[in-house]
Design goal:
By secondary structure, the chain is α/β, with parallel strands linked by helices. The chain has helices at residues 41-60, 63-79, 81-92, 96-116, 155-166, 180-193, 207-216, 229-242, 264-276, 296-308, 328-343, 379-382, 398-406, 421-430, 467-472; strands at 6-8, 11-13, 20-25, 28-37, 124-126, 132-140, 143-147, 170-174, 200-202, 220-226, 245-249, 254-258, 286-292, 347-350, 354-355, 365-366, 369-372, 389-395, 410-411, 413-417, 435-438, 454-455, 473-481. It contains 15 helices and 23 strands. Strands 14-17-18-13-12-20-21 form a 7-stranded mixed β-sheet, with helices on both faces. A 5-stranded parallel β-sheet has the order 9-8-7-10-11, sandwiched between helices. The longest helix has 21 residues, at 96-116. It binds NADP nicotinamide-adenine-dinucleotide phosphate and magnesium ion (MG).
Length: 498
Amino acid sequence: MKKYRNLIDGKFSAPATGRYFENINPADNSDIIGLFPDSAEEDIDRAVRAAHNAFAYWSQLPAPKRGDLIYNAGCLLMKKKESLAKVITWEMGKTMPESLGDIQSSIDVAYFMAGEGRRMYGQTTFSSLPKRWALTKRIPVGICGLITAWNAPMAIVTWKLFPALICGNTVVLKPSQESPLTAYLLGEILKEAGFPPGVVNIVYGSGSKAAQALVKHPEVKLISFTGSTKVGQLISQECGRQMKKCSLELGGKNGLIVMDDADLPAAAKAVVAGAFSTAGQRCASTSRIFVHRSIFEAFLTKLINETKLMKVGIGKDSDTKVCPIISRRQFDKIMSYIEEAKKDGAKIIFGGKALKSGKFAKGNFIEPTILTGVDIHSRIAQEEIFGPVLAVFKIKSLQEAIDKLNDVDYGLTASIFTSNINSAMYALERIEAGCCYVNAPTFGSEPHLPFGGLKNSGIGTREPGVQALDVFSELKTIYIDYSGISQNSQYTNEKDKR
Ligand code: NAP
Ligand code: MG
């Protein structure tokens, strides 16, 4: 069994702990993909020291030169797209088109951020005093700790990494234990692209040990985290205590409204894609829909027909539409939500069962599941499930749909299907979500725009887009005075000026 190693200071090195964890194939739990370092404090400390030593050179390298290396990385991702996608499908289960999309998104953000090397605009404006210029310039934050989720293992990492690097920061990445091989291959690509040693360090291990050591390390000046709201709260508390910059991309409980004037076939396809692709394991998955009562039955028929086309299977099989669940633990959690909803009186109108025989025997597979009659205040209607489970609610009016859609602690993404521009505009103004769609699924963000959520889905930061530069840089305000006297704009009386 291959033992993988941390990437510290440009070299692959074994963990100081001497311990390793297994990377398990979710489609076949008997298939161990490799052993990865179960690192702890000492390994993180070594990585932070390497990042510290690399900072002086990297932060002073002109941004266009940093951009050239990011561009190289983008080209290598493009060259290796197919083989990388196969690895993603192997270690986290999703289908090949989904894995290829994951890499494409990383390529897109690489090219976009490489271009930022020649922009990263600051502000130049007029001073209120004569013979003085006033401007701003972006400077790096310092050593950035990146802690990431597994469901888009290349995209989530690169959406943080490339903005962090273009701004001149050095990085320590702690990827999810569920997707370490993708991170490892990215490390190899970064070496090949020409990044100097120590600029990017990758340390594998658990959240409780490795990631916590990163969050607590006093030399780390910023934590960018993508994951659950519960862990995000822990991280932001520690960052607050240490006055660290902190960016959090957290969970979602995303709703979609289907009005009586909607294109029903298109809406049914979008709901099914949003709810069941990647087996609902996206932060932007659709988990609640609000359907107008006058088309409720007609829409359910279409929805069920579309769902029948969502074949559950192994990600590498070309006809698979619904992939396995990432882990046994997550599988058990999803099934317990379904059981609890049944006990509470919800009706399963499609699916609801785990698949355990034949090719499903060794993996974690759950049928796409649609429920009606769900209590809107129950756990299944309020909490993030992160599985192929959809609750359908009947609504009488647009206002009722918006009120119910908003009545959750999360606010990541939302959508409305309608052919009435006035309904769409009304909803766009009132829906409490960071990303809103009209006549489209609740997922599908583009890396040159900001992505992020309101309420418990985030803390107001946005990655990627140009807004990621605000996360990964500080602004320095600069006044250049050539008056030859000591001027100050706050003194208006001539005699006070010195
Ligand atoms: P998670 O359990 O919160 O883990 C995310 C990362 O944090 C992993 O690397 C994890 O390490 C680490 N971690 C766990 N406990 C920690 C702790 N006490 N201190 C510091 N780090 C800790 O989330 P997940 O199950 O990987 O991913 C699913 C979640 O991510 C969902 O809530 C989903 O909505 C969210 N997500 C959000 C976005 C977005 O952009 N808003 C995108 C994708 C996913 P381990 O390796 O030990 O797990
Ligand atoms: Mg795995």
